[in-house]
Design a protein that fits this description.
Layout (H helix, E strand, L loop, with lengths): L2 H21 L3 H12 L5 H6 L13 E10 L2 E10 L4 H14 L12 H10 L8 H11 L3 H8 L12 H9 L19 H14 L12 H13 L10 H7 L1
Antiparallel strand pairs: 1-2
Helix pairs in contact: 1-2, 1-4, 1-7, 2-6, 5-6
């Protein structure tokens, strides 16, 4: 997997996973379509107008006229058409789910638990005129192992029951939650420092399973940039500051 594809899939994964519970759309199908339609997030429509799925029309009055092509009677035709313009990719993913559920022609596709069946049903309902569309999406799903995303939503891991607190464990349990220290951490000189900053840096590294910031106890620009990425991935307000909302999400 290249850095381009890996970064793209990481960027859209949380939004794709949420589609199953909200709309009955498999995350692998959403990811496969997004990758195909947006050229892995690098098409003009995806970069300028944040439209990952090639959905036409307008979104809250916003649209963009773009070059595209359609297949009619086995012949390919170059055309121009209006496409929805979004503020960000997350909104595009959510609107894709809305689009499939409010348009009754896709009714038979909703809730199908096999990615091949679902994308074929979406294609057959008229999502795209390319006769190879479903096969192309299936190829992407299988090449990049996206069916594993479906398992995450169809076979969620069972959460182990918490043990009943006793006198011996009560103190340990209560101290395992790091309480918000009551101040906002901002990368502004003089930079905040100390144990709470170390906790933030460790939480950022643990969230991605690798070291992305040095645990030096100094809340500088690098830590703030990592916080912005964390906020983006967890759909929080993106400001690079750790206030009560971001802190409570981390801990």
């Amino acid at each position: 997997m290249s850095a381009k594809t890996d970064n793209f899939l990481k960027e859209i994964k949380s939004g794709a996973l949420a589609l199953w519970k909200k709309f009955g759309i498999l995350p692998s199908v959403a990811a496969g379509q997004a990758a195909l339609e947006s050229a892995w997030g690098e098409s003009g429509l995806a970069t300028k107008y944040k439209n990952l799925f090639g959905i036409k029309g307008s979104y809250q009055g916003n649209s963009a006229m773009m070059d595209t092509w359609e297949v009619y009677g086995g012949e390919r035709y170059e055309i121009k058409d209006n496409f929805r313009a979004y503020p960000n990719w997350s909104t595009s993913i959510l609107d894709y789910g809305v689009f499939l559920t409010v348009n009754q022609r896709y009714k038979k596709a909703i809730g199908l638990k096999n990615y091949k069946d679902q994308i074929k049903a979406i294609h057959n309902a008229g999502y795209a005129t390319d006769p190879q569309y479903a096969n192309k999406v299936i190829s992407i799903i299988e090449k990049y192992g996206l069916a594993s995303w479906d398992k995450e939503v169809l076979e969620p891991k069972k959460v182990a029951a918490k043990p009943i607190a006793t006198k011996k464990t009560a103190t340990k349990t209560s101290s395992s939650v790091v309480k918000y220290p009551g101040k906002v951490f901002v990368a502004k000189k003089p930079y905040p420092s100390g144990k709470d900053v170390e906790r933030i840096q460790n939480a950022l590294n643990n969230a991605v399973g690798k070291k992305i910031v040095n645990v030096d106890g100094i809340y500088g620009p690098n830590t703030a940039a990592a916080v912005k990425d964390y906020q983006k991935r967890h759909k929080l307000g993106i400001d690079g500051k750790v206030g009560p909302e971001t802190w409570n999400k981390m801990f």
